[in-house]
Write a structure and sequence with these properties.
Elements (H helix, E strand, L loop, with lengths): L1 H33 L15 H14 L2 E3 L18 H23 L3 H4 L4 E4 L4 E2 L5 E2 L1 E4 L3 E4 L10 H22 L4 H5 L15 H5 L12 H13 L3 H9 L4 H22 L3 H17 L1
Helix pairs in contact: 2-3, 3-5, 3-11, 5-8
Length: 294
């Protein structure tokens, strides 16, 4: 019996020893974990530059639009030679876009119009985006979620023609977003000049396209692009300038075709968005002039 008791006593002591060793190992591991000085994850609050603060105030908070200007290979076409904008050119460009596009729509459509119906992201690219055909891609509207603007580094805020060319991109692409949200009557619109649409639109001059009933050469590429180009040219020109363009067309039938397209555009903005496009045209022209004067 004593031998049995001694055996269990030794076994108990062994178990106590094992438990003690395990406890020491656990405590040692905890101390090692606690002693780690850092982590691979950066959990610090990012420091905002003056440019970031401007974007947060004038785009994120005011219009619910995120601006992407730092390089991100996941949001650009890596098969093309593209590069980020020079940082010094970003805010001047954004101020022009805000004044001429965003503020104009907000004034006519209401303070929350763009906040509710807008791309959630605005992506800026520094240089030109060339197509294989030799044409230049000025912008993209991707699923109504993002507008990409190329040639950011080439914008001259003192040159009206330069500003107009750059802003024509966003006016055109934003029209696509409006159309994706509420479609226009493509069938009815397409009946005005049905036989003149072509994938080889770039072989026609702007003057030649206008004599066929299109406001621009690119309008001939499709009904959807034709509609967006009509909106674009109405908003990058004052009413007087737009009328002068149409009055300068020698083909009477072509003039009537463009006026018919203009009427559909105006009706769409009025009935679907409660916006008088001629008022929007006036406000945009005024804001454009204010940018140039400054």
């Amino acid at each position: 019996m004593n031998n049995i008791n001694n055996k269990y006593r030794r076994l108990g002591n062994t178990c106590v020893y094992i438990v003690a060793v395990i406890a020491i190992v656990i405590l040692s591991s905890c101390k090692q974990e606690d002693s780690f000085e850092g982590s691979d994850l950066d959990t610090s609050t990012p420091k905002l530059t003056a440019l970031d603060t401007y974007i947060r105030t004038n785009y994120v908070s005011k219009y619910n639009i995120e601006v992407l200007y730092r390089w991100n290979e996941n949001v650009v076409d890596n098969n093309r030679f593209l590069f980020p904008p020079i940082e010094e050119s970003v805010q001047p460009v954004l101020e022009v876009v805000e004044k001429i596009w965003l503020d104009s729509y907000a004034e006519v459509g209401g303070a929350d119009f763009v906040k509710l119906v807008a791309p959630r992201q605005l992506l800026l690219v520094g240089g030109r985006n060339f197509n294989r055909s030799g044409t230049i891609l000025l912008g993209l509207a991707e699923g109504g979620k993002r507008i990409t603007l190329f040639e950011t580094d080439l914008v001259d805020v003192s040159d009206r023609a330069n500003i107009t060319r750059f802003l024509s991109t966003i006016q055109h692409e934003y029209c696509h977003i409006l159309n994706q949200t509420i479609p226009f009557d493509e069938e009815g619109y397409g009946k005005i000049t049905p036989s003149e649409y072509t994938a080889q639109w770039f072989n026609t001059s702007i003057a030649g396209a206008r004599e066929l009933g299109f406001i621009s050469d690119y309008s001939r590429s499709s009904v959807v692009e034709d509609f967006a180009e009509m909106v674009n040219f109405m908003l990058i020109n004052s009413n007087e300038e737009f009328n002068a363009i149409i009055d300068g067309i020698s083909n009477e039938e072509a003039r009537e075709s463009i006026r018919s397209k203009e009427a559909i555009v105006a009706d769409y903005f009025d009935k679907q968005w409660d916006i008088d496009i001629y008022e929007l045209q006036e406000v945009t022209a005024r804001n454009t002039q204010e940018v140039i004067n400054n």
